[in-house]
Specification:
Number of helices: 9
Structural class: alpha+beta
Radius of gyration: 20 Å
Strand content: 15-25%
Shape: globular
Order of helices and strands: HEEEHEHEHEEEHEHHHEEEHE
Number of strands: 13
Distance between the termini: 38 Å
Amino acid sequence: MSEPATPEPLRPSRRGLLTGAIGGVLGLAAGAAAVGEHAQPHGVTVSTGALEPVPAAGKHQAGIHLPPTPQRFGVLAVLDVQAAAAGDWLAALGARILDLTSGREGGDILPDGPGDLTVTVGIGPRVAERFGSGASHVEDMPPFAGDSGIPADLNGGDLLIAAYSSDPTVLGVVLDDLIALAPGARERWRQFVFRGHGSGSKARNPLGFMDGIVVPKTDAELAESVWISDGPAAGGTILVVRRLKLDARGFRSKPVGEREAVIGRRLSDGAPLSGGKPDDQVDLRAKTPEGEFLVPAASHARAAHPSFTGSPLMLRRSYSFENDGDTADSGLVFMSYQNDLATFVKTQQRLDEVDALMDFTTPTASAAFLILPGFDSTRALGSTLA
C-alpha cells in the first residue's frame, strides 16, 4: 500500500506567476475570494480554441477524475442555499452546465467556446438530509487540530460549485451564472486557485515538493476507493475541501535535508526516502545501518500511510492559492475524493497526532460534500436521490 498523503502543499510568488501567465503558474482573483474582493487579472488571456472539450454527461461528474491532468486554474464557491425544492434547482444547475460545456450556449459568457471547462457540484449535509437515506453518505466532520481557529462561517456549507478551465478569464463569470440558479444563495467563501505544470495528478506544491504521486488511477482502483458503489448516490463520491494556509517561508528556510525529512520524499523528483523511483511504494521498514528509519517517524509520507488506518487511497486534486499578492495568505486548497468520509477523518486524525508537516499548516476553511452522481440530458443532476 502507498500513502494517500494529505496536503504536500504548493506556492510560487504571485509576481512571477503573473509574468508567466501562459507558461507558468498563475494566482488568480476575480469576484469575491476567500473573505474579500479580488480584482480580475489584466492582460491575461489563454486561448481555448485548441483545447479538447471534457464531456459533462456521464456516469460520474467531470472535474473529479476527468480530465486526467487537472486544468491549471479553478474557482470554488461554498454557499448556503434554500434546501426546499433542492431537486428542482439541482436539475436547473445540471441543465445549464450541459449547455455551457457543450457550446450550445455561452454567448457573452464563453465567446470563445467552452474549451476544457468542467463544473462539479456537491451538496452539504443539510441539503442531503432533504433526500433522506439516499444521500446519507455525507455528514459534518469532527473538529481536527487547529480547526478551532476557523470562523463558523467558513466551516461547512450547503452547496459547492467548482469550475475548472485552462482559461482563467472565464471562471468568475461561469460561477456567477450558475450561482444565480441556486435559490437564496449566500456565499460563505470563494477561492480562485491554480496548479503547476504536471502529468496526471502530479504537480509541485507551494512547498516545492511533488504532490499527487500515490492516488487511485485505474478503473478498478477508482471503483474501490472513490466511487460510491450502490444505492441512489452510486457514481457519486465524497469530497473533503480544506483551505490550508502554509508557512512556506519558514519551511523553505530549513536545509533541504530537513525539508525532505518532514515530507518523507526527495525534493528533486518526489521519490520516497526509502529508495526507488517516484511512483514506488514507500518502504516503512527500511532503515539506515544505524537502525534509523529512512522515512522518518514524523514524516508526512509515514504519517499518511494507509497501513496505519486501514483506509483505502484518496484521490487528491489539490490546488494552490494566493490572495491579493499576499504571501502570508497563501497555501493549498486540499481536495480529496473518497467513497467513505471515514477515510479522510481517520487519516487526518493520525496526521494531527504525528505529522511534522502540520507544524507549517493552518486550516482556514473546511467542509465535506456529497458530489452527486453523473447526469445527462435525460437524467437530471440529483435525480437519482429523489
